[in-house]
């Protein structure tokens, strides 16, 4: 009996608690968790910045590519009113608002939507 307990003690002392592979895997896991929290903080900061820019009167673009003027935001029902043409307003869910469009970006988008024909005239796409 004494021989078995002595052999078990020797095996426990000879085997290291953490081998290099285990330490490496734990380090990789720690790095992945670090980057996960870092990206989460960035996304939260971007969402807060976007919400600060979402004020009535701002030019906005929806997730489906509709451009318009933000008329009102209802915090209680999470709805927004967007004026896409004079007298035409759309009621959309607030999460559909993708970004606030700056004037330079809007001009570039309109220019990209226009086609130039061979004689130098510009026609709008339908």
From TrEMBL:
Cellular location(s): Cell membrane
Family: Belongs to the YajC family.
Protein name per Swiss-Prot or TrEMBL: Preprotein translocase subunit YajC
Keyword entries, A-Z: Cell membrane, Membrane, Protein transport, Translocation, Transmembrane, Transmembrane helix, Transport
Transmembrane segments: 20-37
Domain of life: Bacteria
Signal peptide: none
Cited InterPro entries: Preprotein_translocase_YajC
Membrane topology type: Single-pass membrane protein
Keyword Membrane carried by entry: yes
Organism of this sequence: Agrococcus versicolor
Main subcellular localisation: membrane
């Amino acid at each position: 009996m004494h021989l078995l307990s002595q052999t078990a003690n020797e095996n426990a002392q000879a085997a290291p608690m953490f081998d290099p592979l285990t330490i490496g895997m734990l380090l990789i896991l720690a790095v992945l968790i670090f980057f996960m929290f870092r990206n989460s903080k960035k996304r939260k900061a971007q969402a807060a910045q976007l919400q600060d820019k979402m004020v009535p009167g701002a030019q906005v673009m929806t997730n489906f590519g509709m451009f318009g003027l933000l008329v009102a935001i209802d915090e209680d029902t999470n709805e927004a009113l967007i004026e896409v043409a004079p007298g035409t307003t759309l009621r959309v869910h607030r999460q559909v608002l993708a970004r606030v469009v700056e004037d330079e970006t809007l001009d570039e988008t309109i220019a990209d939507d226009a086609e130039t024909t061979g004689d130098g005239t510009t026609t709008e796409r339908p």
